[in-house]
Write a structure and sequence with these properties.
Layout (H helix, E strand, L loop, with lengths): L2 E4 L8 E4 L14 E2 L3 H9 L4 E4 L13 H16 L10 H27 L6 H24 L9 H19 L4 H12 L10 H4 L7 H8 L1 H10 L6 H9 L20 H15 L11 H11 L6 H11 L7 E4 L3 E7 L9 E7 L4 E9 L12 E4 L2 H4 L8
Antiparallel strand pairs: 1-4, 2-3, 2-4, 5-6, 5-9, 6-7, 7-8
Helix pairs in contact: 3-4, 3-5, 4-5, 4-6, 5-6, 5-11, 5-13, 6-10, 9-10, 10-11, 11-12
Length: 403
């Protein structure tokens, strides 16, 4: 059973079971390894990591350290406190927006692909290509954010860089909208999100498309994409500072452990802080050859945990309310033993979304998909509650088919 300790408690002879950090922010080839010497401890500290999980069964113990189960329970309770606050209203149901959202999502992927291709050939970014599709994404999110955001988890390894850019754009637009920013600022944020990784065109393909974890030297080269993104956008006609901030600061961290400038706290722009949360959330929920993506609920819990050091805690809470503890498209297990897909967020309680249930694990039979609204009482379409999440891979289904 893993335990969480401060890096100040980490000693040679212990076994690190998890580095307590998103995989993009540290140079280690593995997140599990034996701590052999003080130099390794110092390397972990220098990486900006504050807490790690150790496995007492494979190394030395810290007797009074909390177990992973105790940490998880505490984080869940903290998230529940946030979950009872109101969320952004929607104009139409997700099922009415999903087809339109799919079309916009596909168009956005094509546009960022074309923009990156042009920049790779030495051409300048043309904002007139990016701005219309950002506006379409914003309008979709205003109608129902859950529809477009549910598509951000759909990626393939060959187009990851492009699809990640579209996802960060959508997440950031939704985030800005949920925090009551004006339309002009939301548009600038969306442009920044769509173009935030434009500097990756300067990263060698052997590193950018490597089917495995990067070495330390490769990691250093990859980190340069942020500087390149800022440079490319700064030379773009008509670009605004807000959009540049997204690209220049999405890898900065609240405790100063980020890059490229090591900015700390309020030295990071408000938009840069928001972009960092969106970027990490999308990355850790994405499947890669060397990294199995987390389900949304687990990813949110991790970001909530990391907000003690790496992110602005208030913004993390606002982000959680933006997308929901169980976002649209999430597969969940109910107390009744039924399995369902989240189809809509409750406007008053993120723990009580609407679902379509399709399987009964107690009777081991598939059900005719039926709507369940957990915000309603028993006998009125509710009377059940979520007890955990499930993975689509386990059940061999595409959750989006239920929307």
């Amino acid at each position: 059973m893993s335990k969480r300790i401060s890096v100040a408690q980490l000693k040679p002879g212990m076994f690190v079971a998890d580095l307590g950090s998103d995989w993009m922010s540290h140079p280690f080839l593995r997140s599990e390894f034996a701590v052999k010497d003080e130099a390794m401890v110092q390397k972990i500290i220098d990486s900006g990591i504050h807490e790690v999980y150790i496995d007492p069964a494979r190394g030395d113990d810290v007797a009074d350290a909390p177990t992973v189960e105790e940490v998880t329970e505490h984080l869940e309770q903290e998230m529940i406190k946030v979950a009872t606050e109101p969320v952004p209203e929607r104009k139409i149901p997700a099922r009415e927006e999903i087809q339109r959202a799919k079309k916009i999502h596909g168009e956005a992927n094509k546009i960022i692909h074309d923009i990156m291709k042009d920049v790779r050939l030495g051409k300048q970014v043309k904002l007139e290509q990016a701005e219309p599709v950002v506006m379409q994404m914003t309008e979709s999110i205003l109608r129902n954010g859950g529809a477009l955001l549910s598509l951000t988890r759909v990626k393939n390894k060959d187009d990851y860089t492009f699809m990640h850019s579209v996802s960060v754009c959508a997440l950031l637009v939704a985030f800005c909208r949920a925090t009551d920013m004006d339309a002009a600022t939301i548009q600038l944020a969306g442009v920044g999100g769509l173009l935030h990784d434009i500097g990756k065109v300067k990263v060698p393909d052997r590193i950018l498309n490597k089917p495995g974890r990067l070495t330390e030297d490769e990691f250093k080269v990859m980190k340069c994409h942020v500087v390149e993104s800022k440079k490319i956008l700064s030379e773009t006609d008509g670009i605004k500072e807000t959009s540049i901030q997204v690209a220049a600061q999405h890898h900065e961290r609240h405790d100063g452990s980020g890059y490229p400038e090591g900015l700390k706290g309020e030295a990071i722009s408000h938009m840069g802080q928001m972009a960092a949360i969106c970027d990490v959330y999308d990355a850790i929920t994405s499947n890669r050859v060397y990294h199995q993506g987390l389900v949304p609920h687990e990813a949110l819990r991790k970001i909530f945990e990391w907000s003690k050091f790496h992110f602005n805690p208030n913004l993390v809470q606002a982000f959680l309310r933006t997308i929901g503890i169980y976002p649209v498209g999430t597969l969940v297990m109910l107390e009744s033993g039924r399995i369902g897909v989240v189809t809509e967020q409750s406007e008053t309680n993120l723990l009580q979304p609407a679902l379509k249930v399709f399987y009964d694990t107690k009777k081991m039979v598939y059900l005719t998909p039926a709507e369940v609204d957990l915000a309603k009482s028993f006998g009125h379409g509710g009377g059940d509650k979520i007890v955990g999440h499930e993975t689509p891979e386990k059940w061999g289904i595409d959750p989006l088919k239920f929307l």
